[in-house]
Write a structure and sequence with these properties.
Shape: elongated
CATH topology of the largest domain: Beta Polymerase, domain 2
Strand order of the largest sheet: 3-4-2-1-5-6
CATH class of the largest domain: Alpha Beta
Structural class: alpha/beta
Number of strands: 8
CATH architecture of the largest domain: 2-Layer Sandwich
Number of helices: 23
Number of domains: 4
Helix content: 40-55%
Strand content: 5-15%
Length: 438
């Protein structure tokens, strides 16, 4: 700011960083506004980057990143997301008038040669005190300009624990269909931020009540009004929200909690809900693919949804625990147990229902014992079997799988001599001839 002012330019801190500072929160990043045009800003800051058409210059200093944007004024938004053209403005008041919510339409700084002060033409500081999200000016116009602002409203309501001003909320309902114009990537980013709130259900309920959920995630919207034998008076959507709030604040687990029962409406007549975890895993993967979520995230969430209905009992032997670890994957066990505990809370039970703590303790013991979970950990491999006279082919793989199962059940068998002896016992002339035929 001092660099800009020494060059006779206005300099203001604006937007969310100022809002968070006034709330006593640590800003995630810093945005500044100035009357300097992008070329002038670039000239003032060596190695600054200007690679967009929106008048924003990125400056990096001491490991931090700052975005400095020239004052802008309102223009048309024919795609309901981006301005058709960028028109630079002349004053901070003009720039603030185009912003989304009053709490984001404040600035602190000074014009060239002036004294630093808070600029708050839309009552943002008073709304901060009331913990209220209110659109700047006409809410229908604000959301018509940029449909992502509606999703951002419910996200901010969750992360800040604010209420949405009634007319602003009504305008979201009137314009909810416009959210269909927003890219999957931007929806995904806002959804992950919402799910990182202390109580994501605040934003998710607003999303459902406004009609946004029907546009963004219609399969989740079908949960509303669908009864199940859980907590009296609550439907499947209530159960999902309870589960999300109870889940630990990790993106994979929160997403899996949100989607863990997405397959129930499609399996209502099957038992009811029989197989909903398999159906839901495919639906979760498809939903996240539509949002262009990273492929690894898609697969991890689908995997948790697929396995969340496991039924542990005291009759499980050590071999059953080892098979559970192998089937789920050692890297996913903690997340799956966390999801199941949250599901228990969402169903009105204690987190430990189903003896989860006991299962977790047994898993920890097995994990410390260097257990065998796959072929790669066997004391022999395919070359050893070929040296026994087994021709290369499917029989080698089949024998390795059989031996892996034996070792999972009895870890002491993972010895080279023992495994080779077991392989010899398992081989017959007919197996070898059949392998050659394959």
């Amino acid at each position: 700011m001092a660099t800009l002012r020494r060059a006779d330019h206005a300099a203001y801190v604006v937007g969310g960083c100022l809002r968070d500072t006034l709330l006593g929160r640590d800003p995630a990043d810093w945005d500044l506004a100035t009357d300097a045009r992008p070329e002038e800003v670039v000239a003032l800051f060596p190695r600054a980057l200007y690679e967009n058409r929106f008048g924003t210059v990125v400056v990096r200093r001491a490991g931090a990143q700052y975005e400095i944007t020239a004052f802008r004024r309102d223009t048309s938004y024919s795609d309901f997301r981006h301005p058709d053209a960028v028109e630079f403005g002349e004053s901070i008041e003009e720039d603030l008038a185009r912003r989304d919510f009053s709490v984001n339409a404040m600035a602190w700084g000074a014009p060239a040669g002036g004294e630093a002060a808070l600029v708050d033409p839309h009552g943002g500081r008073a709304d901060l005190g009331r913990r209220l999200l209110r659109a700047v000016g006409d809410p229908d116009r604000r959301f018509g300009e940029d449909a992502l602002r509606m999703v951002r409203a419910v996200r901010l309501a969750a992360t800040l624990e604010f209420e949405v001003e009634p007319e602003t909320f009504a305008a979201i309902g009137r314009n909810a269909e416009l959210a269909g114009h927003v890219s999957g990537e931007r929806i995904c980013s806002e959804l992950l931020k919402l799910l990182a709130a202390d109580r994501p259900s605040i934003g998710l309920r607003l999303m459902a009540g406004s009609g946004l959920l029907q546009v963004i995630a219609p399969d989740l919207a079908r949960q509303r009004g669908l009864g199940q034998n859980k907590i009296p008076g609550e439907d499947l959507w209530d159960h999902t929200l309870r589960t999300v709030d109870a889940a630990p604040n990790r993106p994979i687990v929160r997403l899996a909690a949100l989607l863990h029962d997405v397959g129930k409406p499609d399996t209502l007549d099957d038992g009811p809900f029989r197989g909903h975890e398999a159906v839901g895993a495919a639906m979760a993967r498809d939903f996240l693919a539509r949002l262009h979520a990273p492929r690894a995230l898609q697969e991890q969430v689908a995997h948790l949804v697929r396995h969340h209905m496991f039924a542990y009992g005291p009759g499980w032997g050590d071999a059953a625990v080892r098979r559970f670890i192998r089937n789920v994957g050692p890297g996913c066990v903690d997340d799956l147990l966390a999801l199941r505990a949250a599901d228990n809370v969402g169903s009105g039970h204690e987190p430990d229902a189903g003896n989860l703590a006991e299962l977790a303790a047994r898993i920890e013991v097995e994990m410390r014992a260097n257990l065998v979970l796959g072929r790669g950990q066997l004391a022999i491999d395919g070359r050893d079997l070929i040296e026994l006279g087994i021709p290369q082919g499917r029989l080698v793989g089949r024998l390795l799988d059989d031996l892996t199962e034996r070792v999972v059940a009895e870890p002491a068998l993972n010895d080279r001599a023992i495994l080779l002896d077991l392989a010899r016992q398992a081989i017959s002339k007919r197996d070898i001839e059949q392998n050659r035929a394959w």
